[in-house]
Specification:
The complex is a heterodimer of chains A (807) and B (523). Helix content of chain A is 45%, strand content 4%. Chain A contains 31 helices and six strands. Chain A has a four-stranded mixed β-sheet with strand order 5-4-3-6. In chain A, helix 5 packs across helix 7 and helix 9 packs across helix 11. Chain B is of the alpha+beta class and 523 residues long. Among the domains of chain B are: 76 residues, SH3 type barrels (Roll); 176 residues, Gcn5-related N-acetyltransferase (GNAT) (Aminopeptidase); 79 residues, Winged helix-like DNA-binding domain superfamily/Winged helix DNA-binding domain (Arc Repressor Mutant, subunit A, Orthogonal Bundle). In chain B, strand 13 and strand 14 form a beta hairpin. Chain B is built from twelve helices and 20 strands. The chains are: A mainly alpha (807), B alpha+beta (523). At the A-B interface, strand 1, helix 1, helix 2, strand 2 and helix 3 of A face strand 8, strand 10, helix 6, strand 11 and strand 12 of B. Strand 1 of chain A pairs antiparallel with strand 18 of chain B. Chain A: One of its GO terms (cellular component) is nucleosome. Chain A: Keywords: Chromatin regulator, Nucleus, Transcription, Transcription regulation. Chain A: It is found in: Nucleus.
Chain lengths: 807, 523
């Protein structure tokens, strides 16, 4: 049998191998070479080392002798075990515990200094010990702290003194010694440390850098296509798909809501038909009653339909108990849809007032069941339907386009819910009106109407509003106010700026200083003055007590549009530059501010503003404008986004606000509220909101906003239409007097509407879809029916941007 | 006859060396560094074909200047005069060598002994195509020899580095010959061999762990403790940097580079606290340290104790400072150990010997908490004073005891050092022979066992069982089947060896519960 005639099978690790021993062993010559079947196993060594002389010698020695011979061992450098001072060095003995040693890793870090004194230090210590007592450990702690406080830069003596709790002489001595020693030290630290890696990768190949942090690397299989990059792509894809799912779910929900709304509208109309409410009287009645009741609840919950269940239950509906409210909604909604009336686009840039803006999140959706197409304004969800709209957008490039990554906030329903019929309107308007008479501590003077914000880095930013009263207001002296408040009402101030030519007009645009002061005194006009001690204290400094009559909400437009223009001037897109986080932060800050303001307000009211002061110094307004100039780009961004993302108040709100202003002008300025006169005013006004809305939209377009203070004029309700024109005049006046460069910028554009301004208008237009469904705005929408022509004319600007206005 | 002043880095010449038998030898050595201490020149020499641990600083009178070979600037002709080495176990030895010594223009021709005139390799980054065309290497299997990776010698054992005889495409790549070239050429080199079988040697366990072709440019792989990638093997790490370490009673002469703080490398003696292994620069500092350090044992949990021998388990994440100190010390004696990354994914098992002063460290091994490649040991070291006394085998035995508790088979991380190979082979041989010899024949039949059974009993990985059986020449093919043959020779040798092996691990003394690290987040 030739042993070469066959080939050995592969070695099977699972197959039993019989063991032959001793005499049983077959002649190895009979055995077949297994080299092919069982390949030589690698030794596991580096090849070049495997061939090293001593190893080979040792291996062959083993193979020959079956055990290592002494002379065949691999030589290694010597090691000695003869440290004779060992026992002195390691003092004491350690008894082996019976139990296994168990150690808590946390206990390992004792607070001993890492620095160990050397003999050089010992010399110093001996020297120092002649004058004072210093223990080695104490010294080590000192050096240890100095070392650990220093990086490349040594700590200074001053810092050292703070660092070390010793007496100055000792610190000085040790510090000087340490600095000297550190300079002579060759290492980076007196405590020898392993070189650390540097983040720039420059130490990647430094052999002395050890123990680098492991960057977490994804576990992907080698030699497969799913390497890290494609894995990340898959992750991204998954994220995006899930986002798409979310969007689709939201759309689904929105459409369902719309359908519900439609049904409700139908129901309301049917009910009205049965009641014979063809003129809307019953509806109005309902509207008028409603806010009174609302006042009993907090504004925060107003937008939540649930609590209306308790209040009004005329029409029961299982899902929408607050049918009254819905009625108005639905009516308005119904009328609107066919025409897509978009004119209620007066942007009242939403300065958050009493509460955080309701950021709609997925969990909030239920709360907003009544909003139909507004739900596509969910934050972070770029509206998928905005694209087709833009195509037939008559505004072309100026049209508002939703931006991805921009949060569009839900409407502030609590604002729009307040109708002017509200008997306690003054209370509420205080929260709403943003600007109030403000005085500064340094320089001590009154800067007129302003609004405070917290800007980047906690800076306090005053958004000033120019009014025609500025010259008068500058005269206000805080001391004057002080004395004033303490003095009797009969104190008469002769005003330097008495009324300017208002006699020809039906209203007076200006008040005399004495009037203002008397207003302040009588708490009709509130004046904010920072506390003298700390201007920066954001908790306490703001005392904005606002009176509806003295400040006009519309001014917000100007402030925000200033910001808007500012940003566009900087070439930054209005909304895109703001990340979600930034916006949230701002939002939170604002919310906080609001709360503080509210608290302040209440406090103020209780104390009857006894402590209020105004600053007397009438300085040039140019210097006073520095506050508004501090509007940095971030806050500008924010302001702009606030414009865009804030729920735009409807035109009804604006008109209402104007109404309230006028009401207050009319002398109904008791702090307790305007009571019933407001109702009548509103009724009177209900014929005019169309006009005012027109004006507002136009002024937005022209960047000359209605941010004057009509509040102070004394016209009667009947003169309101005229009043509006007066106001427009006043606006122009004001804008001229504004010194802030940003405002000048606006003025420069008054003649030709800037694209930004147009955009703003359209933004507002698109935003007002939110208020459309809100109950209170529906009220005015009814009133607006009378003014369809005007509105239609306006719609040229703003009508078109509704996304998915499905009916 | 050259002058002493002409001896520069890269020169090769015989250097006087005294061997274990106290005989003078003149092995060929390479000058790695020259330094001048108070007018006296010292030369750091690496004895070719001797382990790096024997490298040393010598004075000029030990150099045989008559036979000096100067480094050539360019290797012009691929003269390969050297004959294949006569050593049976490493047929490829002629073609290996040290491309990584990029600092040294002429650092490397490997088999110096056989080369009368060493040829310098200036060209370290030649492409495989050229390499493959090299004549004169008949016994070089192409599949395992041709991949040239300037800084990725990760394929080390399978893929040989360029031979000194490689023709030099001097124009192309030489300019890239920086110390740490980017791996562009390496990538190309790999790509140029589409058909190359990665696993040319069967049962290789270590290669796949390393991403040689698509890995990070310069950092070593992140698993394991040992570098197989020698891209950092520059001249600095080739040289010992610590002269002497005092640890407890012992004074150790380091064998290899260790990245102790650079300012400490110039000290004549580096002092270590015996228990916490902190390094200080002077005896005074050590004295001061000892007043503050109250450790008398490694700062971990004792998981084994029998007699004076104890094992402590230290978590590399929880006790970083000790783990790092231990690694720094171990690096002095482990050539291929890498300290590139942190110690977080490792457990350290420190073997101590107790006396009245405390638990003195004898040796240790580290172990990945989670090994993707069945490694049950990453680095393993018996400190030099305790070597050749059975402690190494005890450490190995302990590591397999742990694997038995875990119910896994394991293998040490590669590459093994020479001593590691000898120790492991010895342990494997004794363990397997012990089993084979204790097998009783059942009902008259010849006793038999499968390789898998051996592996299960011992926790030695199957491949290691096979290689041991091969190495011992126990496995034979007889009458159509594989048999194991235990010759008298083998049996006698084993019995003699086992007589000497007194220290054994007693599994009853082990108090160890393996943790499932994969469920604990990241290490």
């Amino acid at each position: 049998m030739s042993k070469l005639s066959f080939r050995a099978r592969a070695l099977d690790a699972a197959k039993p191998l019989p063991i032959y021993r001793g005499k049983d062993m077959p002649d190895l010559n009979d055995c077949v070479s297994i080299n092919r079947a069982v390949p030589q196993m690698p030794t596991g060594m580096e090849k070049e080392e495997e061939s090293e002389h001593h190893l080979q010698r040792a291996i062959s020695a083993q193979q020959v002798f079956r055990e290592k011979k002494e002379s065949m061992v691999i030589p290694v450098p010597e090691a000695e075990s003869n440290v004779n001072y060992y026992n002195r060095l390691y003092k004491g003995e350690f008894k082996q515990p019976k139990q296994f040693i168990h150690i808590q890793p946390f206990n390992l870090d004792n607070e001993q200094p890492d620095y160990d004194m050397d003999s050089e230090d010992e010399t110093l210590l001996n020297r120092l010990n002649r004058k004072m007592e210093i223990k080695p450990l104490q010294f080590e702690i000192m050096i240890d702290r100095l070392e650990k406080a220093s990086s490349n830069q040594l700590v200074t003596l001053q810092e050292a003194k703070l660092l070390l709790n010793e007496d100055d002489y000792l610190i000085k001595a040790v510090y000087d010694y340490w600095v000297r020693k550190r300079k002579n030290c060759r290492g980076p630290s007196l405590i020898p440390q392993i070189k650390q890696e540097k983040r720039d990768g420059s130490t990647n190949n430094d052999p002395y850098v050890a123990f680098r942090r492991r960057t977490e690397k994804m576990q992907t299989r080698k030699n497969r296509k799913n390497d890290e990059a494609s894995y990340e792509k898959m992750l991204k894809l998954r994220r995006e798909f899930s986002r798409a799912i979310t969007i689709l779910e939201m759309i689904k929900r929105r459409e369902k809501t719309k359908r519900e709304l439609l049904h409700l509208t139908l129901e309301v109309v049917e009910k009205r038909y049965h009641l014979g409410d063809y003129g809307g009287e019953i509806l109005n009645e309902v509207k008028l009653n409603r806010p009174d009741k609302e006042m009993s609840t907090t504004p925060a919950t107003l937008h939540n339909g649930n609590h209306h269940k308790i209040q009004e239950c005329k029409v029961k509906h299982p899902h929408h108990p607050s049918l009254k409210e819905d009625v108005s909604d639905v009516v308005r909604q119904k009328k609107k849809y066919p025409k897509k009336p978009k004119i209620e686009s007066v942007i009242t840039p939403q300065q958050p007032t009493t509460e955080p803006l309701p950021v709609i999140s997925k969990s909030d959706i239920k709360q907003y069941d009544f909003h139909s197409s507004d739900e596509d304004e969910f934050p972070q969800v770029p509206s998928p339907v905005s694209e087709p709209e833009e195509e037939n957008d008559p505004d072309g490039p100026c049209a508002f386009r939703r931006r991805a990554g921009c949060q569009y906030y839900a409407p502030r329903l609590d604002q729009t819910n307040y109708s002017c019929e509200n008997s306690e309107l003054a209370e509420l308007d205080k929260l709403r009106y943003r600007h109030c008479l403000t005085t500064l501590t340094v320089p001590r003077r009154c800067i007129g109407f302003a609004r405070r914000r917290i800007g980047r880095g906690g800076r306090v930013i005053m958004d000033r509003i120019s009014t025609e009263h500025d010259p008068v207001l500058k005269q206000i002296d805080p001391e004057m106010l002080n004395s004033f408040s303490s003095s009797s009402q009969t104190v008469d101030f002769s005003s330097n700026f008495s009324r300017t030519n208002a006699s020809n007009k039906h209203c007076e645009n200006r008040l005399s200083l004495s009037e203002i002061l008397s207003n302040i005194r009588s708490c009709r006009l509130q004046c904010f003055q920072p506390r003298l001690l700390n201007l920066q204290d954001s908790d306490s400094e703001e005392c904005t007590s606002r009176k509806p009559g003295q400040t006009v909400n519309n001014k917000r437009v100007s402030a925000a549009s200033v910001a808007l223009l500012n940003t566009s001037k900087n070439g930054i897109s209005v909304t895109g530059g703001i990340t979600e986080e930034q916006f949230q932060t701002h939002q939170q800050q604002l919310v906080q501010m609001q709360r503080q303001q509210l608290a302040q307000l209440q406090q103020k009211q209780q104390s009857q503003h006894s402590s209020q002061q105004t600053h007397p110094k009438a300085q040039g307004s140019s210097t006073s404008d520095c506050m508004s100039k501090t509007l940095d780009s971030a806050s500008a961004h924010f302001a702009a986004s606030a414009v865009v993302s804030a729920p735009a108040p409807s035109r009804s709100e604006v008109t209402k606000e104007q109404n309230t202003s006028h009401n207050n002008i009319n002398g109904v300025v008791q702090p307790s509220g305007t009571s019933k006169t407001l109702y009548s005013t509103n009724m009177a006004l209900s014929s005019s909101p169309g006009i005012s809305a027109v004006q507002l939209v136009r002024t937005v377009g022209h960047s000359t906003t209605n941010h004057l203070i009509p509040a102070l004029c004394t016209s009667s309700p009947q003169t309101l239409p005229m009043n509006n024109s007066c106001l427009t005049n006043a606006v122009h006046l004001n804008n001229v007097s504004v010194v802030s460069p940003v405002n000048v910028h606006i003025n420069a554009r008054t003649s030709a509407p800037s694209p930004t301004a147009l955009k703003l208008a359209t933004v507002a237009a698109s935003m007002d879809r939110v208020p459309k469904v809100t109950p209170s705005s529906a009220i005015s929408s009814i009133a607006r029916e009378n003014h369809e022509p005007e509105r239609l004319g306006l719609n040229g600007i703003a009508e078109t941007t509704v996304a998915m206005e499905v009916t | 006859m050259a002058e002493v002043g002409e001896v520069t880095e890269g020169c090769r010449l015989p250097v006087l060396r005294r061997n274990q038998d106290n005989e003078d030898e003149w092995p060929l050595a390479e000058i790695l560094s020259v330094k001048d201490i108070s007018g006296r020149k010292l030369f750091y020499v690496h004895y070719i074909d001797f382990n790096k641990r024997l490298d040393e600083w010598v004075t000029h009178d030990r150099l045989d200047l008559k036979k000096i070979q100067f480094p050539k600037k360019e290797a012009k002709t691929p003269t390969k005069n050297g004959l294949p080495g006569s050593r049976p176990s490493s047929p490829e030895r002629e073609v290996r060598k040290t491309l990584d010594l990029s600092l040294q223009p002429a650092s490397t021709p490997a088999s110096g002994k056989t080369l009368p005139i060493p040829v310098q390799i200036t060209l370290r980054f030649n492409l495989p195509k050229e390499r493959e065309a090299v004549p004169g290497e008949p016994d070089q299997p192409l599949s395992s020899s041709s991949c040239v990776q300037p800084n990725h010698r990760t394929t080390k054992r399978k893929v040989e580095v360029v031979s000194p005889a490689t023709p030099v495409p001097a124009s192309t790549e030489t300019t890239q010959a920086s110390v740490f070239p980017q791996n562009g050429s390496a990538r190309r080199a790999v790509a140029a061999q589409p058909g190359r079988k990665r696993k040319s040697n069967c049962l290789g366990t270590d290669e796949d762990s390393q991403d040689s072709s698509d890995g990070i440019p310069s950092a070593p792989r992140m698993t394991g403790s040992l570098v197989s990638d020698r891209s950092h093997d520059d001249i600095i790490t080739r040289m010992k940097n610590i002269e002497c370490i005092e640890l407890g009673r012992h004074r150790l002469k380091p064998w290899y580079f260790s990245p102790y703080p650079q300012e400490l490398t110039t000290l004549p003696v580096l002092y270590l606290c015996e228990f916490c292994l902190k390094y200080v620069k002077s005896l005074k500092c050590l004295q001061r340290h000892l007043t503050k350090c109250d450790l008398r044992h490694p700062p971990g949990n004792e998981i084994y104790r029998k007699g004076t021998i104890s094992f402590f388990e230290i978590d590399g994440r929880k006790n970083k400072s000790y783990s790092q100190n231990l690694c720094l010390l171990a690096k002095c004696f482990l050539d291929h150990k890498t300290l590139y990354y942190d110690t977080d994914p490792f457990l350290f098992y420190v073997m101590t010997e107790y006396d009245c002063k405390g638990f003195h460290i004898v040796g240790y091994f580290s172990k990945e908490k989670e090994s993707t490649e069945d490694y049950n040991v990453a680095c393993i070291l018996t400190l030099p004073p305790y070597q050749r006394r059975g402690y190494g085998k005890l450490l190995i035995e302990f590591s397999y005891e742990l694997s038995k508790v875990e119910g896994k088979t394991g293998t040490p991380e590669k590459p093994l050092s020479d001593l590691g190979l000898l120790s492991y082979r010895s342990y494997w041989s004794q363990t397997i022979l012990e089993i084979l010899m204790n097998l009783k024949s059942e009902n008259g039949e010849r006793p038999q066992i499968t390789i898998n059974e051996i592996s299960e009993i011992t926790s030695i990985k199957k491949e290691d069982v096979i290689s041991t059986l091969q190495y011992l020449n126990l496995i034979n093919y007889y009458k159509g089947q594989y048999i194991l043959t235990l010759s008298e020779d083998i049996v006698d040798g084993h019995e003699r060896a086992m007589l000497k092996r007194i220290l054994r691990i007693d599994s009853k003394c082990l108090h160890f519960t393996p943790k499932d690290w994969s469920k604990r987040g990241k290490w």
